[in-house]
Write a structure and sequence with these properties.
20 helices; 34% helix; six-stranded mixed beta sheet; four-stranded parallel beta sheet; alpha/beta; single chain; Rossmann fold
């Protein structure tokens, strides 16, 4: 037993949920001690239960562990009680598989899923003994890399990451490791020389090779390359054929409950519905499906390797899969006799989705969630949510007929062009849903059994969306709107839940920020900020002090309406969807005009069909004038 493992076993009885830190799950890798192996630590900056539920990390874990001379191990953010014991006992951050210090790996790769986990990343680096700022690292330290949706504005974390991976990771990660192996054979290798090699790989952004420029007044102007190897624009990587892409079948099975404790079967990537607030709808285009045969093969192998009793059909809008009914029918036919259920995590607001859910779910144990997003048709047209009030009421009616009596309705507040009537519309829509239950089930059955939960989040203007230029409403305004809904959504059949206004404000500040935000994040972490996505840990006072200490006004990032012609801190990252298209969608939102789904109508000219990363997709290229 090595010294670190001995220290770990001494600590575990003193912390909450010790199974978070022991590893050795069914189907996990055992790691490798060989110096000939490239070692990658895959890090998720959240607790084990959240990180183990992330599909992207599982894909990369399986992919790298089947590569010759490569081992991938995992590391998650230790909860504060564990961190305290680790620091007290001199135990550095370690991998779960072999209890190897993270600083001894060749690569430490973080998943960027949510801006409020950024202080956890700094804390994990510090716990590892790796310099928090990239400029302080030497050859003895691993290369710290990052990818994921929030990496599409990399600037707020530019000071801490050696390089970012933009887009799908299945192909580019192998190219990075190949370059690394070549670099390792060089006699006079330097950290800089490898970063230059990495920068030449499409989809790689090395922030130290670029510099931000600002006006005398402090406004962002542009990001410029400093070395020959750095391209002026970094293009997103896209895996064109999901049938050929790696997908794990030997799923790790945890010892404790995790957030999504089931097999996740990725049906497709991409969504063409075009909701104007939705960043994922831009970042994962074009739409790419796996065939039903491939999905069934993956599913049955995964069941055989794990013994899981649930398979979730996972995608941005799973019921949009082209062969969804026949796929479900075939899966049900083979899995029901084995005691395995199939579930759909996301449903459209239509009766078709209810029919699918009825065939899949145990009605007594689960509710249904629908996302009208806005309370009036006018505002739904502004955000391009192509559903009507009658769509929703018809859908919940079908759900009631099928036996459901627990419904969750998801809305946003603070959307562009929102008015008081839109808040009133949320209330009215919820009450109409209650009335439909009484009309559908009958007067005698209306008591107590129905529960409709209205949940609201605050609109955050995300980069690379048609609403990226829009301001967020003030925290005071958010609180006023929430107070109104709390007052109006009362009754035995109604419940209301909401999101912390300060957390949404900070999310907006960071996601729209430039490189100057890096120092704020660093200062907040030094003040003790970690696990900011957890309400009991979030300390907005410390964040406010950090902005003040760094001489930055956070409201200038969150509350300012940007002009469509001005430079944005993420303009040098190209998703494949053109800015011209985003501007057009923004203009249509102002006019209250909707844009149809390009699968049901002609191509809408977003630019993805002619994106340079898609040369190998095959088929016809459709060009449409914007």
């Amino acid at each position: 037993m090595n010294i670190l493992r001995k220290k770990l076993y001494e600590i575990l009885p003193q912390v909450e949920k010790p199974a978070r830190y022991i590893g050795d799950e069914w189907n996990s890798s055992k790691g490798s001690e060989s110096d000939m192996v490239v070692k990658v630590a895959l890090a998720f900056p959240e607790v084990y239960e959240v990180g183990m539920s992330h599909l992207g990390l599982r894909i990369l874990y399986g992919l790298l562990n089947q590569r010759k001379n490569t081992t991938a191990e995992r590391v998650y953010a230790p909860w504060p009680d564990m961190e305290e014991k680790m620091r007290a006992h001199g135990l550095p951050l370690f991998s779960l598989e072999s209890v190897t210090p993270v600083k001894e790996f060749d690569f430490l790769g973080f998943t960027f899923q949510y801006e409020l986990t950024y202080t956890n990343i700094l804390n994990m680096l510090d716990l590892s003994g790796i310099p928090v700022k990239s400029e302080d690292r030497t050859l003895e330290h691993p290369f710290v890399i990052a990818g994921g949706p929030t990496a599409f504005n990399p600037e707020p974390m530019a000071s801490f990451i050696d390089f970012f991976v933009m887009g799908d990771g299945e192909e580019v990660i192998l190219e990075i490791l190949e370059q690394y192996e070549h670099w390792k054979q060089e006699e006079k290798r330097t950290r800089l020389s490898f970063l230059k090699k990495a920068a030449e790989i499409p989809g790689i952004y090395v922030p130290s090779f670029y510099k931000d420029q600002y006006s005398p007044e402090g406004s962002y102007l542009k990001t410029i390359p400093l070395v020959e190897e750095a391209p002026p624009v970094i293009t997103r990587r896209v895996v064109p054929d999901l049938n050929e892409a790696f997908f794990p079948v030997q799923w790790m099975v945890p010892y404790i409950n995790i957030v999504h404790d089931r097999i996740m079967l990725e049906l497709f990537r991409g969504c063409t519905r075009g909701c104007r607030f939705c960043q994922a709808g831009v970042l994962y285009r074009p739409r790419r499906e796996r065939t039903a045969e491939k999905l069934k093969d993956i599913c049955f192998q995964a069941i055989d390797h794990t013994g899981y009793d649930e398979v979730s059909l996972s995608s941005l809008s799973s019921s949009d899969y082209s062969s969804i009914e026949s796929l479900i029918e075939e899966l049900q036919k083979q899995l029901k006799p084995r005691g395995v259920k199939v579930t759909l995590p996301s449903l459209r607001v239509d009766s078709f989705s209810v029919r699918l859910a009825r065939n899949l779910q145990d009605i007594k144990k689960s509710g249904l969630t629908f996302a009208p997003e806005a309370g009036t048709q006018r505002l739904r047209d502004v955000i391009n949510k192509n559903v009507t009030e009658e769509d929703l009421l018809t859908t919940v009616t079908e759900a009631y007929k099928a036996g459901w009596n627990t419904i969750k309705l998801y809305f946003m507040i603070g959307l562009p062009k929102e008015q008081q009537e839109d808040l009133e519309g949320i209330v009215e829509l919820a009450k109409k849903a209650v009335q439909r239950f009484r009309e559908t089930v009958g007067e005698k059955s209306r008591t107590g059994r129905l529960k409709i939960t209205v949940s609201t989040s605050t609109f955050v203007p995300k980069p690379h969306t048609p609403f990226q230029w829009e301001p967020q409403i003030s925290m005071e305004e958010v609180e006023r709107k929430q107070a109104y809904l709390k007052e109006k959504l009362k009754g035995r059949n109604l419940a209301y839940s909401w999101h912390e206004p300060a957390a949404s404000f900070l999310e907006a500040v960071i996601c729209r920020g430039d490189r100057r935000i890096s120092e704020v994040i660093f200062t907040a972490w030094q003040m003790g900020c970690t696990f900011d996505s957890w309400s009991e840990k979030f300390d907005f006072r410390k964040w406010s002090q950090s902005f003040e200490q760094c001489g930055l006004n956070p409201e200038a990032f969150a509350y300012r309406r940007m002009e469509t012609g001005e430079a944005l801190p993420w303009d040098h990252i190209h998703t494949g969807v053109t800015k011209k298209f985003l501007i057009r969608e923004h203009e249509r939102s102002i006019q209250g005009r909707t844009t149809p789904d390009c699968r049901e109508h002609r191509c809408q000219g977003c630019g993805i069909c002619t994106f340079e990363g898609l040369e190998n997709m095959g088929g016809s290229i459709i060009e449409t004038s914007v």
